[in-house]
Design a protein that fits this description.
The chain is α/β, with parallel strands linked by helices. The protein is built from 15 helices and 24 strands. The protein starts with 11 loop residues before the first strand and ends in a 31-residue tail after the last helix.
Length: about 575
Amino acid sequence: MTLGNRLASGSRVAIVGGGIAGAGLAASLLFNGRARGLTLDVRVYAGGMSERTSPPVVLTPECRSRLAALGCRIPAEWRTLELRGVEIIAEGRRELLPSSPGGMWLVDGWPSGEGGMAHVRGILTNAASAQGARFVDRHVDRVERQPPAPDAPIAVRGTGPMVVRAQGSGERYHAVALASGAGPLLGDAFFPGFRPAPTMPAVQARLRHASSRLEIAPVARLWVAPLPTVDGLFLLPGVDSVYALAFGPAVTPADLCQALMMASRDGLLNEGFELAALETTRLPHGPGRTLVAPCQLAVGPAAFGHPLQLGLSETLASCSRAAVALLDGGLEASALERRYVREGLCELMEDAAAGARSVSWMRRAGKRAPSAFLAAKGRRTSLGIYGGGVLGLSAPTPLALLGAVRWAGLREVVGSWLRTTMDPVPMAVPDLEPDLYYVVDDDPDAREALTALLESTGAKVVSFADELALFCAVARRPPTAILLDVVLHWVDGLRLCEGLKQHPLTRGTRVVVMSGLNRPHVRQRALDAGAEAFLPKPVDPERLLRILTGRMPASSTSSEPSPARLPGDGGTSDRYAAS
């Protein structure tokens, strides 16, 4: 029931989304309601929460304080690492933004247990449940406003005007909050004209190391624009794992894999990592435009955010302010707009807009981006009630960062008009190792046959079933040549060839591309990517050896090869054929 269009004891509130925002809002509503002498009936629809990657979480002092206020004490033993800061990387330049001692806790139990985000969600869920919230594993299809008919029974008239449709069932509530994150949202199925936070595509992955010893520094890393399609790559270290997140307007899983290979080559990852999980996701990219309707509002990443957020402070702040607005401001749209959006979220929305704009400017800043972050950290800005910074740090604030990266971006653009582009020269390029060949093919039979063929000539061969470790190996131990299949598990071989040819450490490496797709456009793409030769499968062993030993010009490989015939075979061999 309601009292004068306000929540009262016995009022029913539905929360769509059982993640951090949903559990946080439930705990905050019940805690603040009890402080006002109200007993609320809160139900959280937690269906449809499937996440294979299980991200870690960075807990700042403010975040830990907000969790403690909701009855969620984070045990010290949950702290996997204490991050020393965040390192910004762009075009070979680096700057470390240090954190205060004890400031950034990395909480993570993966791979032996759940990720840090699941740990925090669990403790928030327990806190909300202890105060009376009920979590149901059902996916919400839509929310409808259907006030009870005047002649309806008294029991129905007192159950509220909002109907939540979830997997064929419908229940009435006095208020509904959307806390489903930045992924697929209900849109107009939440309320007509709903305009949530815009989102940006992202790809996240979990990397498992062969060794449990942490060889890289315990710092978070943000690599600015490692690829044309990637605005930024986050790397969060664990004891024996790394969490990677790439974001950009057109980022794909292949982009993340290529960026990880480049990171391994440049020493940002330990050698011998294995890609254990990978999935696409979305990140909030600015403030939402229409977040409230009568009896309805959106919280957390569904309402605002930007890709440079590390931690949960902004999400938890929106939950507490939404709870206060629902309890004190009334349920009319104008009251929620004033109390929740204009008064409660004003600074957070401004920060979200500034953070989203900073992402595009930091790409334009190029190699000046790291120094721009450092300059922004030293700027004094007027801080309001929230006063949070980007990347989980107390500074720089999003507004300070926007000013710094915008100035750096303008200087970089103007400077590019006045100078000739020169590729960076590595400090030391390893000597090429003679008679060493790398074979990259996800087909074990083809890999075994090519290895045996090359070893029969006295050469040393290293074969790769997974292409992710190739960049690191080539940069540290350059081979005579690489035999590269086009169809691989994570990244197609042509993109891999382009990446090898674009970096000073690996551009001198000879690459021979092989493919069962013997089409003129595939052949031309391979040569355009920098391949020395293109060989259709099945590969002719004699022709391959002539190319590798230099006794046959690469241009002659454009003619159609005869089927491969191995010594001792009675007929045409298919050991080199694509699977």
